[in-house]
Write a structure and sequence with these properties.
Distance between the termini: 7 Å
CATH superfamily: Thiamin diphosphate (ThDP)-binding fold, Pyr/PP domains
CATH class: Alpha Beta
Strand order of the largest sheet: 2-1-3-4-6-5
CATH topology: Rossmann fold
């Protein structure tokens, strides 16, 4: 992720009081991970599997904290079982959108082709964030949806935010 975009994501997380972060490092989201990991505002838990991260975030919500996971969209498939069982557990999914239009990596195409349909089948609302100017409102809107819908919400980062 571009440094400027990563800073905007972190600032938006703070403004929306999302402090608890699980992370499975991803090359496109690594700058966000580095910033939250160095900032004492956040409680950062590295995980070994996306389903583990989603489940830990659900536990954080039970303890009264808003939570997010940082991961690549390829991990969505790995987290499907946990996400499918997260009825009434709001977790913000911050995902790089590999395989989106404009991604030059050939290996991302199969991942990108299934990302949005999988989110739709799981009933997870999502926004694709392609411009830095969209970051603040996307995090705000996602947080409002977390609070009202009481379920996961995904933000897919692509375009100028990651390249």
């Amino acid at each position: 992720m571009r440094s400027s975009s990563a800073g905007l994501v972190v600032d938006a997380l703070k403004r929306n009081e999302i402090r608890f972060i699980t992370v499975l490092p991803d090359s496109w989201m690594f700058e966000v991970y580095e910033l939250v990991d160095k900032d004492p505002y956040f409680k950062v838990i590295p995980v070994t599997h996306e389903a583990e991260g989603v489940s830990i975030c659900a536990g954080a919500w039970c303890g009264g904290q808003r939570a997010a996971i940082i991961m690549e969209n390829s991990g969505l498939r790995s987290a499907t079982e946990a996400l499918g069982r997260l009825y009434c557990f709001p977790v913000l999914l911050l995902m790089s959108y590999r395989g989106d239009v404009g991604d030059r990596a050939f290996f991302g195409r199969p991942i990108g082709r299934t990302t949005e349909p999988l989110l739709q089948v799981l009933g997870i609302p999502y926004l694709t964030v392609r411009k830095e100017a969209e970051i603040e409102s996307a995090v705000r809107d996602a947080t409002q949806t977390l609070d009202t819908a009481l379920g996961p919400v995904a933000l897919l980062f692509s375009g100028e935010t990651v390249r």
